[in-house]
Amino acid sequence: MTNYFTTTEIPEIKAEFRRLAMLNHPDKGGEKAVMQEIISQYHNALKGLNGAMHGPENTWKYTYNYQYEQDIVDKLTNIAHLDGIIIEIKGSWIWVSGNTKPVKETLKKEGFRWSRNKNQWYWHNPKDAWKKHGKPLSANEITHLFGSKRYKAKKKDKEESLVIN
Length: 165
Known about the structure:
The protein has a six-stranded antiparallel beta sheet with strand order 5-6-4-3-7-8. By secondary structure, the protein is an alpha+beta fold. The chain has five helices and eight strands. The chain has one domain (about 10-165).
């Protein structure tokens, strides 16, 4: 059995999960059993870090919440198969851009909302406590503040590969 998560850093575990999900999703040609194993190992890796101190100078304590993490997993796996979209993770928010018009109804059904100012779809867990502070941030300001991982399915000679920026 492959050990997919060898790091003990939460952001790295989450980034690796997203990368693996895009590569191994059954709708992208991956095997269902492999995807289920990746999800299981993802939860176990995060569960093992419950209560651990992280961040610069160990400034915050990680609290594992299965349902919260599973909500994000579900959203990613439900849209990973859509062609022509770019999925970007900024903090705990999922942003979708690219050719979204053909998949607009699917995104709506999954709970994504359209950001008129950023011309992108977004989703965040309703359990997240967040407030508006001052002026709205641009997409670049959000990326600068929270960092970003971008995933785009790219078709090439009937094979799919994943481009990660």
